[in-house]
Amino acid sequence: MVPRETFTPDRFFDLGDVWFSKLFDGLPYPWEILQKDRKETWIRGNLRATVDKIERNGNIVTRTVSIKVSGGEAVVQAGAYIVGDEIELRSGVEIEAGAWVKGPTILGEGTIVRHGAYIRGGVITGRRAIIGHASEVKSSILLNEAKAPHFAYVGDAILGNGVNLGAGTKVSNLKITNDEIIVRLPEKEIRTSLRKFGAIVGDETETGCNSVLNPGVLLGKKCLVYPGTVVRKNYYSEGSFIR
Q1: CB-based contacts of 71: which residues, under 8 Å, 6+ apart?
Q2: Which distant-in-sequence residues (6+ apart) come within 8 Å of 27 by Cβ?
Q3: Which of 33, 100, 207, 218 could form an SS bridge with 211, CB 3.0 to 4.6 Å?
Q4: Are 202 and 12 contacting, i.e. CB atoms less than 8 angstroms apart?
Q5: CATH annotation of 4-242
Q6: CA dist., res. 48 & res. 51, Å (int)
Q7: Exposed, middle or buried: residue 46 (CB in 10 Å: 0-12, 13-18, 19+)?
Q8: Pick from 122, 140, 46, 38: which is nearest to 84 by CA?
Q9: SS (H, E, C) 114-147
Q10: Residue 118: beta bridge partners?
Q11: Residue 1: what pLDDT?
């Protein structure tokens, strides 16, 4: 039998160098963060808006700007879409032309949002995260150096430190039956009360191209998901190879 402690946040993530680690304090399970409006309320309470002075025509940035922020500058290229003012860009953030960013969102130090990326709000990133071309991220957390660099979908999920999603990876967040997602652990099942819940992806886990993580998947640290694999809802222990 796997003890309950296996499924606390620190078993999936090393939070020692994560600037928003307090968000996980006291949680029995990491998916508790994904409860409706919990994360968004935290973002709004900790947000220091940095985009309110950017010149926009509608939502389109009209000229490339360097914004002075705490510890340095953030760059937003002309042609990026910045929707609303509930957005914080930290030092070293780069938002390329054609990217769409909506709040409430905080992008951590050195995060890069590439051309064609779509950030739908409720998003927090750690240091040097990457949200790449044609990747969509919705109501999710990316820890330090987590990457969704090409054609990914990340919905209602947490990606650990150093996670890399291969091109075309889909983190599905809604069952085809549209009902509650139940987490399947080795010794029991837990009702989450969540209708939308993607995956918990542990530190340094990697997925191959065109893989799919079904709603409620739990991947431990340093797992490898083979290309083209559909990962069924389950808990996969640290170092698992999934094909």
Answers
A1: 90, 91, 109
A2: 8, 9, 33
A3: 207
A4: yes
A5: 2.160.10.10
A6: 9
A7: middle
A8: 122
A9: CCCCEECCCEEECCCCEEEECCEEECCEECCCCE
A10: 100, 136
A11: 47
Residue 88's H or E segment, with its range, is: strand 87-89
Chain Cα centroid distance, residue 28: 20
For residue 199, the SS3 value is strand
- Characterize the bridge pairing of strands 158-159 and 199-201: parallel
Task: Judge contact between 195 and 201, C-beta under 8 A.
Answer: no
Task: Give the residue extent of every domain in the chain.
Answer: 4-242
Asked if 97 contacts 115 with a C-beta cutoff of 8 angstroms, the reply is: yes
At 84, list the tokens.
């609303």
Q: What is the DSSP secondary-structure string of 185-197?
A: -SS-EEE---SB-
Quote the tokens at residue 22: 């307090």
Could you report the average pLDDT of every consecutive run of 10 residues in the chain (243 residues)? 69 97 95 95 95 96 96 97 98 98 98 98 98 98 98 98 98 96 88 97 98 97 98 95 97
What is the sign of the dihedral through the CA atoms of 159, 144, 25 and 220? positive
Q: Cβ(193)–Cβ(210) under 8 Å?
A: no
**117 class by beta-carbon count within 10 Å (0-12 exposed, 13-18 middle, 19+ buried):** buried
What span, in angstroms and rounded, lies between the C-alpha atoms of 216 and 195? Answer: 10
